[in-house]
Amino acid sequence: MQPSYLNLYKNGELDKRIEQAFKLLESCYICPRKCKVNRLKNEKGYCRTGLKPKVCSFMPHRGEEPPISGSRGSGTIFFSNCNMSCIYCQNYEFSQLGQGREVEIEELAKFMLELQNIECHNINLVTPTHVIPQILKALKIAASQGLKIPIVYNTGGYELPQIIKLLDGIIDIYLPDIRYGDKDIARRLSDAPDYPEQIKLR
Q1: Which pLDDT belongs to residue 88?
Q2: Which structural domain range is residue 32 located in?
Q3: pTM
Q4: Does the structure show a pLDDT above 90 at 45?
């Protein structure tokens, strides 16, 4: 069975989703922060990310859930920065301190293809929420060059319902890390007091 995004790529729907996603960057409305900065002009809001995605590393990851890691690893792309500020984050150096480098969309597509070429089972997008438009554009490029493995959306769960809807038919495996049911704890540990409310909207 082929990944669902290939159908959208072939029928042109993926192009429409990419266009919709990039429009949301003009007055950024990608996550519940709704910073409304113009990221198309490289303005930066809460996630400290402008137009270009920033990547810390990409590699086969054998430490994810067994069904995702399999025998050859999950093809993980670790995105720098985040729309949350979790004080306990195990990826703190790049999620909060911003370690990594900005990459062109074409280079991001190349990462995906390289992970497929070394026989990873899937493309695992870690902390992808704030760079969804860029990821979708890279996915289209990669699909045009033969990408055909599933996409994993590995997220902290701080998402807008309309973005999840935008991703319908593109993402094959959702791996949300649901963290809080209490707004005061969410505020103290992640600076996201509306987190429990956003989770209920899914």
Answers
A1: 94
A2: 4-200
A3: 0.95
A4: yes
